[in-house]
Amino acid sequence: MRPCTLATAALFAAALATALPAGAVDSLRNLAQSAGIRFGTAVNVEALNTDAAYARLLAREFNLVTPENALKFSVVQPERGRFDFTQADALVAFAEAHRMQVNGHVLVWDQQLPDWLTQGHFSPDELKAILHEHIRTLVTRYRGRVASWDVAAEAVGEDGKPRETFWSRGIGPDYLALAFRWAHEADPRARLRYNDYGGEGAGAKSDGIYTLVADLRVHRVPIDAVGLQMHVGLNDAPRPEDVRLNMKRLAALGLETDVTEMDVMLQLPADRADLKAQAGLYRAMLQACLAVPLCRSFSTWGATDHYSWIPEFFPGRGAALLFDMDGHPKPAYYSVRRLLRRAAESSPAIE
Ligand code: XIL
To answer: Is 158 a catalytic residue?
Structure first.
């Protein structure tokens, strides 16, 4: 080997550290970082383990990942007291290898619960003990590795009132405050979030979410952020201006916001006009986030249309994401990238 001075070794190391795969310099993740936000996606961990092109796409474009299902109650605690972290561990390892942040999803939700739980006829005290153990086990395991958690989701109804859920029925209305406190105890540095859909813009549900999180703040419950899911179609999306105002009023409570699960479902087969309108919606929602300093990240609910949940849950609809069935960028990808580039150019570089 040729002798190499300390100085050239340091230069070489610096070059390596900044070396990126071809074409990645202009990736969403790099531009977003320069613009001061993170760009994320939900991840299908089975696909991550079997589809190398999908894994490469994730590593290239995103610096924030949310397990699509791997940390949901029925997956992670399929039997009482038996935890299965196989999928979640794989995702966290992948994220660390690619310098991505991980968002834990989701601790208290009334869907994807295992039968042993929903059919167990537990007393309020037993349910509290079960939920406490669940939260403590998950959050402790990933302390310092999962940066933020969706502690609670979908606790507000369309009318803006607290929704009756498995947890509210079983434990009582304080289940939310307890969940945030237990998560905070398990990892005091984790960022704790409330996440919901249909309350992104203006209206009863948005007001109900605002009232709920304001009340949590008044009672000094450790909540840091509100996630706006943003599952929309071309005709039912909120006005971007209302989204911005909603983010601002949440910021006035001291709360950060994130767009957490955006997808824009289209009628299949999608035509060019719809793909263009879809691009406009993605752009407008991203612009709302970029306009509010406490909006910290923007995530889509999946990377490619191939692994999107939409066709299964909304038959006849799909094509909802930034990459098509073959992993190729769609018009929405390019308009998001253009906007990020503009924001990156006009914003001071951040670490
Ligand atoms: C969805 C997943 O994408 C599907 O694979 C699963 O079968 C059902 O749940 N809001 C949420 C997500 O917060 O957890 C949901 O994910 C989509 C709606």
So the answer is: no
